[in-house]
Amino acid sequence: FTDACEQGTHRRTVGANRKTHFCYSAFVSRFRYYQNVCTVSYSSVWWDWPRWEREIDWMALNGINLPLAFTGQEALWQEVYRSLGLNQSDIEEFFSGPAFLAWNRMANMYKFGGPLPQSWHVNQLRLQFRILERMRAFGMIPVLPAFSGNVPKGILKLHPEANVTRLGPWAHFNCSFSCSYILDPRDPLFLQIGSLYLSQVVKQFGTDHIYNTDTFNEMTPPSSDPAYLSAISRSVFASMTAVDPKAIWLMQGWLFFSDAAFWKPPQIRALLHGVPLGRMIVLDLFAETEPVFSYTESFYGQPFIWCMLHNFGGNNGFFGTVESINSGPFKALNFKNSTMVGIGMTPEGIHQNPVIYELMSELAWRKESVNLTKWASLYAARRYGSMHESLSAAWKLLFSSVYNCTVPHYRNHNHSPLVRRPSFNMNTGLWYDPADLLETWRLFMEAAPSLMSKETFRYDLVDVTRQVLQDLAAYFYQDIKDAFHSKKMPELLTSGGVLIYDLFPELNRLLNSDRNFLLGTWLEQAQSFALDEPEARLYDLNARNQLTLWGPSGEILDYANKEWGGLVEDYYAQRWSLFVQTLVECLNSGLPFKQDAFNQAVFRVEKGFISNGRKYPTKPQGNTYEIAHRIFLKYYPQALKRL
To answer: Between these two residues, 635 and 21, which has the higher pLDDT value?
Structure first.
């Protein structure tokens, strides 16, 4: 922490004694935060140490100094629960499987995808020690977990007098896996458990005094009384300071946006003011689209970090709000009585849209907004190692179209019919002119012959072509829909045939040609943690389910959809094949299409993918340029006619 500030710089006070100042030379963020509590499940759940090391090196190169460090916490919770008297079956009933731990930790769900093998705890604990060592070697401040009140049901047997509330269902889950048990922070047992746990965290992991826990994440509190809400946050914070008197609570501000009907100014102020000013940092999690600081008087005096959320579920589709992220941090800094202390990147999933994270991380070092047109042109030169007129034009076009969504309140969550369960009510809306994407594709193909040796270019060529095919799939869906309603069998067979027998296979071949778009890699990484065949099956089920059904019965169906080689062929294409086949049968028989009946049939296809046991390529197959060029020659003329 910096105590000396140059004359004329902005000052923000945060810290145990409110004498710690964060300094800005015009605008250099004191904190550069990274990760969302969901990122650990959607992206890094299966990482080994070499992959973690690369990510931490990337953080250092991009100036990240406040990363989330949540790995291995279940191993410590297991020890705490055992010390409290819970037996192993109580603990196993509580933890979810690896791919769903983010929501287990937030009290949204339990048990599903579990139980966690003991080998998992050992591996994750070992990883966490290396993660923390590497982060601290770079001068980063790892954010460690604290207690939110989420407890196993077994606590009630040991402490029947405890003030425990059972929550309602979450996200279409029933109470077999949801309806978690929350210990009231005002109950003396909360301080006991919270202190026990944080003592373990500090003992095993050391501390840099910043801890994250989130109360009421996507859950409505039992009372809106401001006195109650202040007491809650005061008690949560007390469980931290009982162990670490210098503790600072880092809290995601997502709840204020996601449940805006409950969190009105009096409730927000009460929760925030239960903690002394300067001892909490709020992540304004979705500030590029839904800033909370602007209607809460800068979180009523608590320091906050302006964050770009950008991505939901780790979906692949192109998306960006470059105008908003280019101006938003500077507007927040200059807001009346601003308490902003940094900027952050909080995507639910990574491995997508790298240009957006390049721009966002650079803004932490800027005194003012960049010229986006010039920045995009120079990005092309940096990314490929040389100036290329057509690629400079392509990136400028992307920045003025698909990467510049200006639709108010828009959430980037890939709704393309390609990756969603087929129906007659699918979302085909776009925030950009598809003609701009098509011209970008042409420019990339023009530059391709001389740049295929560059991995960054190959990645981008695959990604641009993937996005074009995604958009074309929506057109074929519309043709299928129109043909069915017009009872035109030849048109239905033609459009459905092209989609199923050509577009999907070509897309699958394209994705399989690049190592960054392989389902096989995700599954292989998952199974690599297994000590035996039952563990391998458990991890494989976790990995497949998260991408598809997201729950035992499709509770959050396709939320984490990915356009990956293997997944396109054996999951998305199979659903569409059944849909078209069903429509053909309906026209032949004269019977109406029944969505409920189709949903039951397609659910069997979806479950079949999860249990098919098939091995998928983990190495690229085929020549990316040849595949992309063939797709271009075939589909570019068709696409031109549609625009």
So the answer is: 635
